[in-house]
């Protein structure tokens, strides 16, 4: 401020020779004017920021509302369809394509046996389960060996997709009929473990699931349905992920759905409903679905091989994969569809402590930032169709930058009010736009859930859901924004690191493996 | 209107909307629960009658429940109807016959035929559904007309219903639905249900312009064991422009399993064909199950493309003793090569299937 | 007449089976999932078991395999109920040790006859 005033003073001084008679008085007067001008400028800036926050809040909530309406159309449609087309049809149909389920596992000894048993009793005509033990240091493999009486069956390691880890051994159940393959390999991360699984997969469709998520018995059948309906065009489908905390789980299945006990998780239930279930259904309707959750996605194997599998360097490898699929298929001028199915459900444990939640959200936001950076040429590029001109710009504006605007609003609007840049009416308008509108959106989502899915049965759960969708806006959202911001900063730092690695690789001497020590 | 008024008006509107939504949610749920409970109560009273009807053995045993159910008052019947319709898909034989008789007497077929031309797409679709479930033959013609309905749901339901009714004459119009006009798997399922009568139309469809139509025809011919069409399918495998259709043709030939299929599949594993087709042909030779495929499959073990060699090994593991001899030979002749490793895997699979301890190479690749 | 244990998750079909078998003079115990079927079969062994292949939690094939594994239930006659066209289910069921299978949709009369003949075979 003082520096600016000095500069301004200097500039004012430059005018002196033109009007020597009023030099002293003029200087004093202009200093005051300058200060006024600066104050005015600051006021204008604050006002502009407030106005931006207002417009932003209105548009982001409106976009949610639009997505929900699009999703509702789909959900209602689905609801009606259920009565005509039964799962029985798909289950007994010889054309339902066989699926390979890939379950990467790293130190999962506690739940792996249950997860695999539950996976093997899925309702699906033909499928195999591949567990990729990603160099676990606990008894993950031993549990499986005991449970299924595994024997080693050496296999030639396929190389469709480049792999980083080394396959140590492959095992199958001794009974020769259970469709299970367990691969042991050196540790190389989730994405690479999935790539190994894709290499070994024998069926045309590949389903990626997390070892700690539970699937509804008919989930696979429903998520495979778009492939059976439109085999020439569908390349990927994703299913709904819901939160399992405090539900009754019997024999690896969710037997009774309940609202979680902790408010932190209850709020996440509503958030998942709005953003993941309805948001993604909406995007799918628009033909611009970008994210298929890693906890439950189904892909055509041949297309995965064509794009080279998952990117082991990516933090958000699931979203990155889908973006790359869009990119590749658009560039190849192919007709394709990526579909979100709103009914089949995978249940996953949500973080119940703020620390774990913070880590998850930082990772999400960092993954998104890195993804958008990596595929920045696609943004607003009409060559990539709706993904280019609609989804990606939306993600930059309303997903990536939301934390910035959100926290900016929280910090600056009170100052603006105090400085008199905005009046009480404007502040109220802001409050209404960002909180009142958000509460409305939450209630619309709840109404759709109630009408189309009706997963939560008790009146109490309904009340809790209503309170949670209000509570989300006070505290939770702001912390989320803060973690999101941290994620963006982490991404900025890492981008530099990756560049560093690339430079080093460029200088590596021939004959020596490059990039041996990745940063 | 001043800014302050605008803000308070918006706030009031929002509060109103939230309250309204809350009410809608609560009322909706209450209504839904009430209806569920009422329907459960009403149908529970009638359920024993329904069980007597479908569980009865002879005509006399079912005549009494039939009369009582047919004369139920409308309110009770409406609660029972959905359950009765869904039971249609679960029972066969005289149980189904009795149920169809009841539903016809209740006028379901008549109402559904009328509903086929309703304005509401849901009504049209559910009418088609009911007619299909009943297997109502007179509905075939109006259902074929429904194949050009503007609503996708209605078209899909009509396809399925035509399959359930089983009018072979509907084959051609159904086939032309495959290219995105109706779900592929439903089209295939319906054509399978039509049976041998649909074969001429299916063979004709092998030269359809739309690859989806050719694909569905190939699949259905393979799945329904249309051995007399093997020659035509061999032509598809050799010359179809779509590799997806070729892959399906390979699979179909593996299922049909005649000698002409065997030669065509062996030929299709050759290097001149596309990768996906070669893989599928190698797999299909295992399905086919003839030991005459063993020499060709053995050569494929040394193929540089992983999935060709792997599928050949899998197929060999299913071909019994002649294959075992070929595998042992490969291991001896090509020791240390990937071909030998593929052969080991196939032998181990044979051991697993037979419940023997696994034969393993001396130094298992670790 | 015999004590029959039925495990079937579809209540329509379950009720129908119970009705038909009771009509034929059997005593029927019906449950809706595999785990309860297994528990009941061990606590009070019936004379014959009818298992639906696709049930939540534990499939009919798994129950069948478990029953065969334990000496006190190993000799129980078992009939599986399976959906149409799933040959793999039938094969799995027979390798797991089932005595017979019935394909859905089924005729209640045929079901009663099958139970009768499997029982007769087991008693000789």
Which CATH architecture of one domain in chain A? Alpha-Beta Complex
* Mean of residue pLDDT values of chain B: 90
**Radius of gyration computed on alpha carbons of chain B:** 30 Å
Large-scale geometry of chain B: extended
The named CATH superfamily of one domain in chain A: Spore Coat Polysaccharide Biosynthesis Protein SpsA, Chain A
Helix content bin of chain B? over 70%
Largest sheet of chain B: none
Q: Averaged pLDDT of chain A, please?
A: 84
| Rg of chain A, Cα atoms, Å | 27 Å
Pfam family, one (chain A): Glyco_tranf_2_3
GO molecular function, one term (chain A): glycosyltransferase activity
Family (chain A): Belongs to the glycosyltransferase 2 family.
InterPro entries (chain A): Nucleotide-diphossugar_trans
Structure description:
The complex is a heterotrimer of chains A (519), B (366) and C (124). Chain A has helices at 2-14, 23-84, 87-91, 112-120, 140-148, 190-200, 219-229, 263-286, 301-307, 317-331, 354-374, 385-400, 402-418, 424-453, 459-507, and strands at residues 99-105, 127-134, 150-152, 167-173, 180-185, 205-209, 214-215, 234-243, 248-250, 253-256, 296-300, 337-348. Chain A has 519 residues and is an alpha/beta fold. In chain A, a hairpin with a 6-residue loop joins strand 4 and strand 5. The radius of gyration of chain A is 27 Å and the shape is globular. Residues 1-23 and 499-519 of chain A have low confidence and may be disordered. Chain B has helices at residues 3-55, 59-70, 74-88, 93-105, 108-115, 121-134, 140-146, 152-165, 171-175, 184-194, 199-205, 211-223, 230-239, 243-256, 259-268, 275-288, 294-300, 306-317, 320-333, 338-354. Chain B has a domain at 47-106. With 366 residues, chain B is mostly helical. Chain B is 74% helix and 0% strand. Chain B starts with a helix and ends in a 12-residue tail after the last helix. Chain B is built from 20 helices and no strands. Chain C contains 5 helices and 5 strands. In chain C, strand 4 (78-83), helix 4 (87-95) and strand 5 (100-104) form a beta-alpha-beta unit. Chain C is globular and about 30 Å long. The two termini of chain C are 15 Å apart. Chains in contact: A-B, A-C, B-C. At the A-B interface, helix 2, helix 3, strand 4, helix 14 and helix 15 of A face helix 1, helix 6, helix 8, helix 10 and helix 12 of B. Chain B: Pfam families: HEAT_2.
């Amino acid at each position: 401020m003082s520096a600016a005033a000095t500069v301004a003073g200097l500039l004012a001084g430059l005018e002196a020779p033109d009007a020597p008679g009023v030099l002293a008085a003029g200087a004093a007067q202009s200093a005051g004017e300058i200060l006024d001008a600066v104050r005015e400028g600051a006021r204008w800036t604050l006002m502009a920021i407030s106005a931006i926050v207002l417009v932003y809040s209105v548009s982001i909530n409106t976009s949610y509302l639009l997505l929900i309406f699009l999703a509702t159309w789909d959900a209602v449609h689905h609801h009606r369809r259920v009565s005509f087309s039964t799962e029985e049809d798909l289950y007994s149909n010889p054309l339902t394509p066989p699926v390979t389920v890939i379950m990467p596992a790293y130190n999962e000894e506690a739940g792996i046996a249950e997860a695999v048993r539950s996976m093997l009793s899925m309702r699906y005509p033909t499928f195999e389960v591949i567990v990729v033990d990603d160099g676990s240091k606990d008894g993950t493999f031993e549990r499986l060996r005991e449970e299924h009486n595994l024997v080693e069956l050496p296999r030639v390691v396929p190389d469709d997709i480049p792999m980083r880890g080394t396959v140590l051994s492959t095992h199958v159940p001794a009974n020769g009929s259970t469709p299970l393959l367990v691969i042991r390999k050196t540790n190389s991360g989730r994405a690479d473990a999935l790539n190994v699984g894709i290499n070994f997969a024998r069926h045309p469709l590949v389903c990626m699931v997390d070892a700690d998520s539970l699937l509804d018995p008919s989930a696979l059948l429903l998520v495979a349905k778009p492939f059976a309906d439109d085999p020439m065009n569908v390349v990927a489908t994703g299913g709904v992920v819901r939160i399992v905390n405090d539900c009754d789980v019997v024999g690896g299945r969710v037997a009774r759905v309940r609202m979680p006990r902790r408010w932190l998780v209850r709020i996440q239930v509503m958030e998942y409903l709005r953003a993941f279930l309805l948001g993604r259904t909406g995007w799918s309707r628009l033909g611009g679905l970008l994210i298929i959750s890693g906890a439950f996605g189904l892909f055509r194997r041949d297309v995965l091989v064509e794009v080279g599998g998952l990117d082991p360097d990516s933090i958000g490898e699931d979203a990155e994969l889908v973006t790359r699929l869009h990119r590749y298929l658009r560039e190849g001028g192919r007709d394709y569809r990526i579909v979100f199915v709103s009914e089949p459900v995978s249940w996953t444990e949500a973080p119940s402590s703020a620390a774990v939640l913070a880590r998850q959200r930082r990772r999400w936001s960092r993954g998104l930032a890195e993804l958008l950076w990596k595929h920045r040429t696609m943004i607003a590029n009409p060559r990539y169709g709706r993904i280019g001109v609609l989804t990606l710009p939306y993600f930059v504006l309303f997903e990536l930058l939301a934390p910035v605007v959100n926290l900016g609003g929280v910090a600056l609007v009170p100052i603006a009010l105090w400085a008199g840049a905005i009046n009480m009416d404007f502040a109220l308008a802001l409050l209404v736009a960002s909180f009142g509108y958000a509460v409305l959106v939450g209630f619309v989502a709840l109404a759709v859930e109630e009408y189309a899915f009706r997963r939560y049965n008790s009146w109490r759960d309904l009340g809790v859901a209503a309170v949670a969708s209000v509570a989300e806006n006070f505290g939770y959202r702001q912390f989320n924004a803060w973690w999101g911001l941290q994620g963006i900063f982490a991404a900025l730092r890492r981008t530099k690191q990756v560049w560093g690695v690339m430079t080093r690789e460029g200088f590596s001497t021939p004959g020596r493996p490059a990039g041996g020590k990745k940063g | 209107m001043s800014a302050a008024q605008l803000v308070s008006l918006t706030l009031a509107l929002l509060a109103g909307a939230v309250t309204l939504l809350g009410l809608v949610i609560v009322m909706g749920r209450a209504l839904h629960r009430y209806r569920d409970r009422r329907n459960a109560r009403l149908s529970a009273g009638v359920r024993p009658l329904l069980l007597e009807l479908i569980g009865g053995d002879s005509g006399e045993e079912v005549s009494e429940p039939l009369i009582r159910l047919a004369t139920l008052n409308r309110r009770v019947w409406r609660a029972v109807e959905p359950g009765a319709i869904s039971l249609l898909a679960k029972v066969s034989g005289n149980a189904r016959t009795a149920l169809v008789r009841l539903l016809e007497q209740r006028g379901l077929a008549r109402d559904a035929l009328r509903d086929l031309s309703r304005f509401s797409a849901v009504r049209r679709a559910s009418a088609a559904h009911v007619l299909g479930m009943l297997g109502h033959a007179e509905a075939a013609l109006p259902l074929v007309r429904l194949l050009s309905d503007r609503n996708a749901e209605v078209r899909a339901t009509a396809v399925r219903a035509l399959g359930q009714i089983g009018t072979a004459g509907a084959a051609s119009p159904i086939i032309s639905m495959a290219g995105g006009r109706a779900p592929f798997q439903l089209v295939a399922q319906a054509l399978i249900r039509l049976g041998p009568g649909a074969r001429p139309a299916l063979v004709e469809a092998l030269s359809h312009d739309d690859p989806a139509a050719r694909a569905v025809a190939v699949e259905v011919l393979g799945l329904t064991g249309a051995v007399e069409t093997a020659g035509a399918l061999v032509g598809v495998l050799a010359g179809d422009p779509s590799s997806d259709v070729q892959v399906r043709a390979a699979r179909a030939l593996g299922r049909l399993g005649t000698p002409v299929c065997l030669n065509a599949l062996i030929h299709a594993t050759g290097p001149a064909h596309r990768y996906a087709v070669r893989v599928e042909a190698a797999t299909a030779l295992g399905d086919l199950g003839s030991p005459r495929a063993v020499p060709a499959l053995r050569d494929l073990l040394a193929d540089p493309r992983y999935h060709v060699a792997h599928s050949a090994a899998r197929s060999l593991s299913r071909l019994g003793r002649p294959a075992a001899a070929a595998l042992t030979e490969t291991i001896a002749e090509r020791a240390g090569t990937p071909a030998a490793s593929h052969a080991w895997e196939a032998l181990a699979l044979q051991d697993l299937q037979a419940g023997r301890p696994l034969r393993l190479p001396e130094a298992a690749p670790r | 007449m015999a004590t029959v244990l039925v495990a079937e998750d579809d209540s329509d079909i379950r009720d129908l089976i119970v009705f038909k078998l009771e009509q034929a003079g059997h005593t029927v115990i019906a449950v809706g999932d595999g785990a309860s079927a297994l528990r009941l079969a061990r606590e009070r062994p019936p004379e014959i078991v009818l298992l639906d292949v696709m049930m939540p939690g534990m499939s009919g094939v798994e129950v069948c395999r478990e029953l065969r594994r334990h000496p006190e239930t190993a000799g129980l006659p078992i009939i599986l109920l399976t959906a149409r066209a799933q040959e793999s289910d039938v094969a799995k069921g027979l390798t797991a040790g089932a005595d017979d299978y019935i394909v859905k949709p089924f005729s209640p009369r045929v079901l009663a006859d099958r139970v009768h003949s499997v029982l007769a075979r087991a008693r000789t």
